[in-house]
Amino acid sequence: MQNTAKRLNTEIDKMLNDMPSINDDSLSYYEDVVKLMKTAVLCDYFDSKADSKGRIKLHYRLDNSKRLSKFLSPLIDAGMYEYSRRKNDDAMEILKLYLDCTDGPLFQKENQNVGLVAYYVSLLSFGKEDYDNAKRYADLALKDANFAHDAAEIKINCISKQLVTKADSLKYVSELMDLYDKMPENIAYFKMLADYFSVHGHEREVLQFAVSETEKHPENKLAWVLKGEAEQKNKHWSNAIESFKHARDIDSTYVPAVFNIGKCYFDDAKQLKDSIQVGKLRFRKTDDIRYRELLQNAKKWIAEASILDPKQDIVEWKQMLEYINKVIR
Asked: Which of 54, 57, 183, 220 has the smallest CB count inside 10 Å?
């Protein structure tokens, strides 16, 4: 083992002597850095093996740690260089080498960029649909506050891609709830939870989640809108309007909240009219007054939405507003 370590250490000496300048040939420089660090890891592996008498005597670790640690940053650069060239497999191999270097005893104190590297390995693994490894490296990146948000999104997306059984779904929601509780400022988690509940037909859970969130985070306009949408779906117009008004109080320019207040009034008016027509009854004067009053309220809010969203990029208000104007002119 020591003979192998000695041979590899001699190779390291030679590579250091022959190392090109990055200014002369960046590609050759990065290739040599990768080869150097691979050799260093192998050398340390054989150097740490016991001899025939079971003794471990390290000959090269201390010196190699000192003289090679300066190549850890260029090793990351080499990986990112391949990433920029869209050579993702090569980039992943190099970045994994960095993690191997910093995970072992040779460079155990030189791990300040583990979060960055783990994030990119996770991202590249996700791109290859290798969701298990993507999650594993995302967990490593989560330990670095600078990459925790992005790594968490990769992890959650991995879990969502693997939803097959009920147990998978429960795990997904549990992981997502845990991340959202830790980082409530990240609205991506909230939206993903809301989407999951909505898409998978958990109407009651949507409302429960929304109510819980408005209690825990009363300044979260998205929670109030989600609550309003659940109430709106159940035709609880008054409750929905109050929820949307809470969201609008938080952000007076938030178009979905403003528009949906108007839509609640509009749908309430439509429900009144439909109920009378279904019963083949005539509109009483009180019904007509109530109907026009609801449309008048709807007009106020939809007109406000039209000012905030004149090109209808967010909501389609034009047809509804034209109908109201035609009825109550």
From this structure: 54
